[in-house]
Amino acid sequence: MRSFKESRICVLLHSHKKIANARHEFIKLSGSENKMEALLQVLEPSLAKGNRMMVFCNTLNSSRAVDYFLNENQISTLNYHREVPAEQRVENLEMFKSNDGDCPTLVCTDLAARGLDLDVDHVVMFDFPSNSIDYLHRTGRTACMGAKGKVTSLVARKDVILATCIEEAMMKNESLESLSVYSIKRDKARSRVNEQKGRNAKMEADASARKAEAARKRAEDIAEGVVQMNGHAYANKKPITGWCRPVVLAISVVEGLGVQ
């Protein structure tokens, strides 16, 4: 998947929903890739530039895991989710917005995706959202009032279809709200059908290969048996007669067809 610069703000069906005027980057993760390590590789260079960052997670457990991992790697964080008391959430936001830069990373759930006045340089989606509207709300935390910003999404295999639809819609300057639940389900169904077709084709090819190998082995076994029983005929260059002759002729035909 590519990263690209979205140069214009796209106003959606509702005026308060906009695509951030930011650079959007989609990082497709392999099945064996460590997601936490991928997050660290995204955060470290951005933090080195002094950027204020938000890391979005889909669940409380995911948010806790990210917070613990980052602190273990000497990255100071603040939390914003429903299990943080309201007073503490307010305090965390004030610390996050302060200019001293002591805690430039806010680890949060979608509770922080709307209704907050924040000046964020970089939004990171550790967990990709389940729909395009949540993606819009998260990206709205950066590039406010025409300022520059960046959005980085870690895309797991299960999120590829939705991420691709969002990416293509932004490239065409289309409304993300046009990505209906039906169209996403349709694309997922098509993907499953194509995957099944690929598996079926592989199974058919494997079956054909096994049949060809079995035929080759049978021909070799027949040839070996005839040679053992009639070795004296080959050695003395005498014609083979009787019941063996049709078998030898069959072997000659098989060899002429190029069966190895």
Automatic annotation (TrEMBL):
Pfam families: Helicase_C. Keywords: ATP-binding, Helicase, Hydrolase, Nucleotide-binding. CDD domains: SF2_C_DEAD. SUPFAM superfamilies: P-loop containing nucleoside triphosphate hydrolases. InterPro entries: Helicase_C-like, P-loop_NTPase. GO terms for molecular function: ATP binding; helicase activity; hydrolase activity. It comes from the Eukaryota. Residues 35-187 form the Helicase C-terminal domain. This is Helicase C-terminal domain-containing protein. It comes from Buddleja alternifolia.
